[in-house]
Amino acid sequence: MLLCVEVNFLVKHSGLSDLYDKVAAGERISEADALRLFESKDLNAIGAIADLVRERKNDNRASYIINRYINYSNYCILSCQFCAFSKKKRDADGFQLSVEEIVQKAREALSVGITELHIVGGLHPSLPFSYYTDMLRALKALDARLQLKCFTAIEILHLAWLAKKSGRDTLIALKEAGLESLTGGGAEIFRKEIRSQIAKGKESAEEYLDVHRTWHQLGGRSTCTMLFGHIESVADRVQHLSLLRGLQDETHGFTGFVPLPYQPDNNEIDVKHPPTGFDSLRTIAISRIYLDNFDHITAYWVGMGLKTAQVALSYGADDLHGTIIEEHIFHMAGAKSPQLHTEAEMLKAIREAGRTPVQRNTFYEPIKVWADTPPADEPDHDSHSKILDENLATA
Ligand code: SF4
């Protein structure tokens, strides 16, 4: 066994050394094993096992993407209980953007070097299907290299209903218009009993998985998520991970997994104890260990803050997500993180954690591998670019 002395000591005293041995031998852990990990309080031992997997898959690299979020509208015909984002037409703080406004936001963001637009919205009651295809085409016309990661599975089902097409034909039409990746949002927690309490009316687990399955069969890639730390049990989390691992075995179409810590404000769910740092780190670590067929685990700084996301790089995560620039969904639910992080802040966080920073594209492929120490011409860590600040001011 390749266990160094310090890790050996740490794991040996945790009662988890059989799981370490299993993982070190390249064996897959079971659902029962994952539950055991969730029941353990030895975060450092769990982290050591996760770090073994992370290092095997990604060596010493940790990635980030220069991206921008755009929400085209927050009007939604559903009212998921956990959601603080959706509004009805009567609400004063509802909004919807025209294609021209979206293109303008993209144009501004291109000037700070974004490679990806991440676009989602509510299930709009009246926008026609052509709005979505026009939006994709207009963004591709702006810059064909801009990668468009758009829509959650429930949005795809909504668009299929609007277009009067099957899910497959809807995805084909969106792909032809420029869609390159689906987002992973909307997975929430798959177990029906929990899902119906936090997101009544939303698509079922089977429907979520089927949209991603179809997209993968068409040659597309996507990410996937899990909203944790509300009313679900750890067994529900393991079942969720199990369904994702099963689909990945089938299609190999997921690029990465993004665990999302629940945000407790401005919604109908009474959650007394939203996710702590401990819970966020163990969930990332156990995901890394359990999802042995996933290449990447992202620590989503919007939900846990950059400080915890940075620590997560030693607990199984190999990616910090992106600069984002303008986030609404988590912030309307109480996230205290800033609206954006600059590339300089990402580089600092990654280097401090002892990893080599890599700027990646939508598919987690490297665009630029940075030096381990900052070159002289690298932007100052504390400086926000003028354009980013202007973007934030108009967000
Ligand atoms: S989570 Fe999505 S589908 Fe549910 S109410 Fe909010 S915007 Fe609508």
Kindly describe this structure.
This protein has helices at residues 5-12, 17-24, 31-39, 43-58, 99-110, 129-142, 153-163, 167-177, 192-198, 205-217, 234-251, 277-290, 301-312, 329-332, 343-352, 386-393; strands at residues 61-65, 67-71, 116-120, 147-150, 181-182, 221-228, 254-261, 319-322, 356-360, 366-369. Helix 7 (153-163) crosses helix 10 (205-217). Strand 3 (116-120), helix 6 and strand 4 form a beta-alpha-beta unit. Strands 2-3-4-5-6-7 form a 6-stranded parallel sheet. The chain is an alpha/beta fold and 395 residues long. The longest helix has 18 residues, at 234-251. Residues 76, 78-80, 83, 85-86, 122-123, 154, 199, 202 line the site of iron/sulfur cluster.
List keywords for this structure.
about 400 residues; alpha/beta; TIM Barrel; 2 domains; six-stranded parallel β-sheet; four-stranded mixed β-sheet; 16 helices; disordered C terminus; binds iron/sulfur cluster
Q: Treating each run of at least 4 consecutive H or I residues as one helix, how many helices?
A: 16
Structural class: alpha/beta
Overall pLDDT metric: 93
Number of strands: 10
Q: Topology of this protein?
A:
Layout: H1 5-12, H2 17-24, H3 31-39, H4 43-58, E1 61-65, E2 67-71, H5 99-110, E3 116-120, H6 129-142, E4 147-150, H7 153-163, H8 167-177, E5 181-182, H9 192-198, H10 205-217, E6 221-228, H11 234-251, E7 254-261, H12 277-290, H13 301-312, E8 319-322, H14 329-332, H15 343-352, E9 356-360, E10 366-369, H16 386-393
Parallel strand pairs: 1-8, 1-9, 2-3, 3-4, 4-5, 5-6, 6-7
Antiparallel strand pairs: 9-10
Helix pairs in contact: 3-11, 3-12, 4-12, 5-6, 7-8, 7-10, 10-11, 12-13
This protein binds iron/sulfur cluster (SF4).
